[in-house]
Amino acid sequence: MFRALHDGWTLRAGGDDRRDLAGVPAAVPGSVHTDLLAAGLIDDPYRDDNERRLTWIGRTDWIYETAFDWHDDGSERTDLVCEGLDTVATVLLNGHELGRTANMHRTYRFAARDLLQEGRNTLEVRFRAPYAYAEEQRERLGDRPAAYDEPYAFIRKMACNFGWDWGPTLVTSGIWRPIGLHSWSGARLAEVRPLVRGDGVDVHVRVERTGEAPVTVTAEVAGVSVEAKLGQGRSEAVLRLDVPHAERWWPHGHGAQPLYPLTVRAGSDQWRREIGFRTVELDTDAFRLIVNGRPVFVRGFNWIPDDCFPARVTPERLAERFAQAVAAGANTLRVWGGGVYESDAFYGLADRLGLLVWQDFPFACSAYPEEEPFRSEVEAEARENVARLSAHPSLVLWCGNNENIEGHQHWDWRGRLGDKSWGAGFYYDVLPSVVSELDPTRPYWPGSPYSGSPDRDVRDPSTGTVHIWTVWGGGQDYVHYADYTPRFVAEFGYQGPPTYATLRAASSDEPLTPGSSHQKAPGGQEKLIAGLGEHLPRPETFDDWHYYTQLNQARAMAFGVERFRALMPYCMGTIVWQLNDCWPVTSWAAVDGAGRRKPLWYALRRAFADRLITRLGDEVVLVNDTDAAWEGTLTLALRDLSGRALAAQSEQVTVPARATLRVAPPQDQAAALLTAELDGHRALFPAAEDPAMGYPPAEFTATVDREPGGYAVTVTAATVVRELALFPDRLDPAASVDEQLVTLLPGESVTFHVATEAELDAAALTSYPVLRCVNELRGPGRV
């Protein structure tokens, strides 16, 4: 029986310098920051520059305390189970030390029976200041080079707590996952690892017991059951279940996701999870993921922690985020190495939705010490989490780290390191050994980017994975994506500000300016303007800055995604940096820190569509990522700005399943636009960048009609209307719209569906700055 101990906690600061902070009500699971915020003792760390005034929290010791009643129920064992302590802690029960921890990524179990007493009991968790511990370890072992001047490599904790180029420096402490008492007798299931085959599962079981009596272990799935008896001295068994009739589990877009409950019992203890039957392989020569024998083109997002305080990330919030990923056309999430091993709810959602999960081990952008205590901590956390996540069919790849091998090769680390360790022993020895031993059904890859050999340049695009940061970080224009011919792009991104409502809520500035948004990337504001290049006009107002930089982000990433998809099957993956944000910030995310979709999200929904019309050089490319051939009449037309066709050609085309087809369009130097249409899909390609196109000032009519759940806004164009966008969150922060960034030819219409419970003014909904387009009227005559 498990009894949660989540009530009655208080928080106080350790030491003499914060005596005023005592008796603060504490939520468990939670964190110090959120408790202080709830008590009104600190300002919202996500608003204005409050973050900078809260660094003292990470330099302070903290003590959590509670009291509870306990009565002996006759169980032979009672353990205190701590599923997540952040991070360096001493646990005391009734004033006696029960155990110590030094790893946010581990579960700890302490035998508590002998220290429990009838009636009232007290429990304390004393957290040492994360900075003090990390800096002490850095001093002991010698500094290591890193992307940021913070000691995150010297503590087994979520690295991005210490700040990133998209995240604040909010160094947390707290009981961040459930804590409670587990009472049991006889035997308990200490570990269950289901290793799935396409036609069955081998269930590896390890039991802990209080005596030597034989234990019967059973496993059952899909109507098949087996059992094993563990006699004296035996604690492990492998139960093989053959299930040839089971339906295969497929990634999103490739088939269904049937899941089968697997139940394992040992004595009175029971373990139950849903599993899916599938195989996964990695073609390491080309870096192709192969599921059930079928290569899968990866359309994905990188995933960062969805909040700086992970205890606030509920299953409902994860479900919203996952739904946004799937609706955008994604089939993969890469759990980035500067965060955490995510919750069971995270991987369970991925299982049900068919989202493949690429799981980084938590190492990012730094040289890491391999000496003790870190080597043992890393192996312990890896063993626990590889076993914990083995049941999930969505998990298809373990990756050793994010950018650390690249750092060693390209970031001038070697001279600074000398003979000090930097993590190679983890990525090439410890982690692959753990995966090979505990989960040989899944591939392991040492890091990303990585080209398949320690002796090969990690940036070699001809094999393995690449990260493309020459466009944003290196200052190249986004058309530079066209210069790459990669096998698999695991990271690339372009910045844009959050939605208006998110920015407005996070800033007290009146009026808002471009500087009102949090910006953590060095030179980020300057890069946003420079990146407009010849693509868009220079903004003269905050409203123009907001629209143009969001639009430029959307175009840049759509350009890159479409480029890489057009290279299929040579290129077999494109993972955008990034899906989500952990707070309100100008960043690379498609969904901002308040969960609102940016224009980038809508552009990626088109770029990630199962069937896509795009360009590669002078050719039109048809991309078909479905199991059926794409057949029909392809119409290519060169048009002037009135929409009139100057030249056209039509031809019957067949694009095989999971394939591409290239077609040469008609040529006419005088044409302004090329349109390509097939089977209800249309793409439009201007001959030049927007400022050079000479578009006429946009003329259109706009009508607003009430409909269930909101409004229908219909726009009918009298001229070309370029990149029409509607921003209803400027009128109601809770409002959203179903479409963005639509280009209309003269005579065409589009209807935007606005979801809102508020009464919105029709004139405001159809005028600047809520309704925007690139070639809108300027000055007093703005529509």
Write a structural description.
By secondary structure, the chain is of the alpha+beta class. The chain has five domains: 2-182, Jelly Rolls (Sandwich); 186-275, Sandwich (Immunoglobulin-like); 295-600, Glycosidases (TIM Barrel), CATH 3.20.20; 615-690, Immunoglobulin-like, CATH 2.60.40; 700-781, Immunoglobulin-like. It is built from 14 helices and 44 strands. It has a six-stranded antiparallel sheet, covered by helices on one side. The chain has a six-stranded parallel sheet with strand order 27-26-25-24-23-30. The protein is globular.
Features:
alpha+beta, Immunoglobulin-like, 18% helix, 783 residues, six-stranded antiparallel β-sheet, 44 strands, single chain, Jelly Rolls, TIM Barrel
